[in-house]
Amino acid sequence: MNPMPPMKLRLQPNCLPCLIGSLPLTDYREAARLVWSYTPEIPLWVQLPKVPAEGITRQFAAGMPGLAEADGRALIDTTAPGFEEAVMRFYEEALALEGGAAELDASRFAMAPEAAAGFFELIRQAAVRTPPPLAVKGQIIGPVTFGTSLCDSGGKAIFYDPQLRDAMVGLLSLRARWQVRRLAALGRPVLLFIDDPAITGFGSSIYIGLGRDEITQSLGTMIEAIHQEGGLAGVHICANADWTLILDSKADILSFDAYAFFDQFVIYRDPIRRFVGRGGIIAWGLVPTLSPEDLARASAEALHAQWA
Fold first, then answer.
1. How far apart are CA 189 and CA 292, in angstroms?
2. Residue 152 forms beta bridges with which residues?
3. Given CA atoms 22, 27, 32, 35 in this order, what sign does their dihedral have?
4. Which domains does the chain have, with CATH numbers?
């Protein structure tokens, strides 16, 4: 696949603001304007969930073998004629990319403008921005969230099927590499965050049978893919979780909701110290997002007083 050499630049975050990705808008240019207005140092491409094609799972599902739709929901139809052949073609294309016999930008793993208009809008605007940003940020759905929200034709989440999980991780990893490669062409360090809120279900009755090894292996593969393209890999989880899943991984950045879950996070004292000690960055979600009342009461001054 002829990957780019790893970037030499490392990020010095210096408490700069950074967004998660989704905005409650339908106008990409207005969304980009807000991004540049409030986070010009680390802009990102915006996801607009109000646009049907940009639901968190649907936006990244294109290219998955057996992808179909029923009753308005995406699924993997393992009973469809030719499904096994589709799986074989999927792996053949992935292997051709790894061997340098095909181009990533022309593959199924590239994102189409109709599925991620905000991505292409960011590239267009960042290319002419003066001064250039400190870094640029992208995001991709995480393997647990993708694999537990997308089901096969029998209603079983694909994360629990070893073959489908392997294909899913391959799809997301190559799509992550494509993002980093395209963003790296801007000449700035690239942050690519893996958004995986479903990890909060690990260890609970929500996802019985969700194993630590399967989670860490899936995340680890995606993180390694980002690193292979020279990007910095972040993991964002918006609720409480077993934070060792991230702190003990090779992620460069851990992003969490500090406003709502600070007390639960800091009990992981030793893993946090190890993470920071090896150069890991913690992104603190200081602005309330779970309660409209908390958000209405919030102000820059009040949040500064709370966290300073």
1. 34
2. 76
3. negative
4. 28-307 (3.20.20)
Question: How far does the chain reach from its first CA to its final CA, in angstroms?
Answer: 46
**Rounded Cα–Cα distance for residues 63 and 69 (Å):** 13
Using CA atoms, how far residue 86 sits from 38, 65, 76, in Å, is 44, 6, 11
CB 220 within 8 A of CB 174: no
Among the listed residues 42, 32, 192, 39, the one whose alpha carbon sits nearest the alpha carbon of residue 125? 32
The candidate with the shortest Cα–Cα distance to 60, out of 143, 128, 121, 1, is: 143
Q: Tally helices (H) and strands (E) across the chain.
A: 12, 8
3-state secondary structure (DSSP) of residue 212? helix
List, in sequence order, every beta strand (DSSP E) within 224-274: 232-237, 253-256
Estimate the crossing angle of helix 212-228 against helix 162-184, to 10 degrees. 30
Helices in 105-161 by DSSP H: which ranges? 117-126, 143-149
In one-letter notation, the amino acid at residue 89 is R
Q: Tens of pLDDT along the chain (308 residues)?
A: 544 444 434 678 888 999 998 999 999 989 999 999 999 999 999 999 999 889 889 999 999 999 999 888 999 999 999 999 999 999 999 999 988 878 999 999 999 999 999 999 999 999 999 999 999 999 999 999 999 999 999 999 999 999 999 999 999 999 999 999 999 999 999 999 999 999 999 988 777 888 999 999 999 999 999 999 999 999 999 999 999 999 999 999 999 999 999 999 999 999 999 999 999 999 999 999 888 899 899 998 989 888 87
